[in-house]
Amino acid sequence: MDIDVRDDAASFVAKWRARWPEWEFGMVFVPAASRPRVEAWLTLLQELTDAAWGGADPTPGLAKLAWWQEELVGWSKGARRHPLGALLQPVAAPWQALGRALPDLRALRGGEGETGPGTGAAAGQAFAAAVADCEAVLFDGRDVDMDARAAVLASLLGERALLRAASMDAIEGVDDASVATHPGSAPRGIQAALVTARLQRPQRPLRPLGALFTAWRGARSVA
């Protein structure tokens, strides 16, 4: 495992910013007081999805997911080790449910050699529901419903496709990654819109004006 809890949160957030430079413009549509929490949350999700789907050998990722499952259960009890917890754990989100749903996130990777569209999508719905539940608390979102969960799952499928494209594999599952309407919160709406836009040209970030317009459209998609 390469999770080093001696690093501060900024080092993890910097890795997320490097992958999603468009969020420099997306943050315009997030209240200033909420921006550190949004960054920490999206960074956490990137850490989880990288562990679940990254690398040709799934074994290290499984160890990381087991570590994260223990960590998130600890957050629900007031304990934390990872520096992102300083920004997230004090919020009474359903951390234990998120941790227990990590096997569903791993299921979205598919079996060895199984990389077709929609692989594991039915199992991924449980993780998407846990993410939507957390976002409703973290970002004062509306009550979680099928649309909110569908928006999360669509984003996850799109991010999975982008991760595979970054690994020089063909994009899979693009049809499954169409963004659902009415995401549960503005940060989710922005991320969903950015994912959809990036899928059109996965090897490069959006241009600044395009990123700004896309983020605006995503923020406005919240019912």
Features:
223 residues; mainly alpha; Farnesyl Diphosphate Synthase; 0% strand
Brief write-up:
The protein has helices at 9-19, 23-26, 35-53, 59-76, 85-88, 95-100, 102-107, 121-138, 146-166, 186-200, 208-220. By secondary structure, it is mostly helical.
Describe this structure in words.
The protein is mainly alpha-helical and 223 residues long. It has one domain (9-220): Farnesyl Diphosphate Synthase (Orthogonal Bundle). Helix content is 61%, strand content 0%. Helix 8 (121-138) crosses helix 9 (146-166) and helix 10 (186-200) packs across helix 11 (208-220). The longest helix has 21 residues, at 146-166. It is globular, with a radius of gyration of 16 Å. It starts with 8 loop residues before the first helix and ends with a helix. The model is unreliable at 112-121 and 173-179 (pLDDT under 50).
Please outline the helices and strands:
Blueprint: H1 9-19, H2 23-26, H3 35-53, H4 59-76, H5 85-88, H6 95-100, H7 102-107, H8 121-138, H9 146-166, H10 186-200, H11 208-220
- Percentage of residues assigned to helices: 55-70%
Q: Sheet bearing the most strands, described?
A: none
CATH topology-level fold name:
Farnesyl Diphosphate Synthase
Output the CATH class name.
Answer: Mainly Alpha
- Low-confidence runs (pLDDT<50, min 5 residues)? 112-121, 173-179
Tell me the CATH architecture: Orthogonal Bundle
Strand content bin: under 5%
Q: What's the domain count?
A: 1
Sequence of secondary-structure elements: HHHHHHHHHHH
Please state the average pLDDT score. 86
In whole angstroms, how far apart are the ends? 40 Å
Count every beta strand, where a strand is a DSSP E run of 2 or more residues: 0
Radius of gyration: 16 Å
Overall geometry comes to globular
Structural category: mainly alpha
Number of helices: 11
